[in-house]
Amino acid sequence: MELGADVGAINKWLFETKTKASMELKRLAEGTLEYHFGNALYHRHPGDAAKSGALEEGPEGVSSIPRRVEGVVAGAAFREQPDGIWRLSLRTGEPIDASEVCRRGAAAIPRCGMHPALPLEQAKQTVLEALSHDL
């Protein structure tokens, strides 16, 4: 500030401004949100990033969408890989421990960030069953 930086413009650029592609990817992801006993999950397909024009692996922030919902303790984000395998990003807050949830689903969820070789509905059910122990 002392050197003449426009703090307002910098703040807007860092915390408020998103690309149209980023917002479109977020819209596509939010369209798949589901709620189950206080938890939220969503999924997205390989073509979603291309359809939106967003970077596939970028700072788009879509994996945290489920946890942004008021009252949600655990958020699961499933992303389909080009080979058809689903990747999971599991984010939790107190009292749920994500690593414990992953441990409970050991065969299908070997670790957080799993790549379950399961159809989407079965992968979601596995995660929901593992989460149900903490609720």
Protein described:
The termini are far apart. The longest helix has 13 residues, at 120-132. The chain contains five helices and four strands, in the order H-H-E-E-H-E-E-H-H. The chain is globular and about 55 Å long. The relative contact order is 0.14. It is 34% helix and 17% strand. By secondary structure, it is an alpha+beta fold.
Strand order of the largest sheet: 1-2-3-4
Question: Helices and strands, in N-to-C order?
Answer: HHEEHEEHH
Distance between the termini: 48 Å
Note the beta-strand portion.
15-25%
The average pLDDT value, as a whole number, equals 80
Radius of gyration: 17 Å
Number of helices: 5
User: Which structural class best describes the helix and strand composition?
Assistant: alpha+beta
Quick one: how many beta strands? 4
Low-confidence blocks of residues: none
Q: Largest sheet, described in full?
A: 4 strands, mixed
Shape designation: globular
What is the share of helical residues? Answer: 25-40%
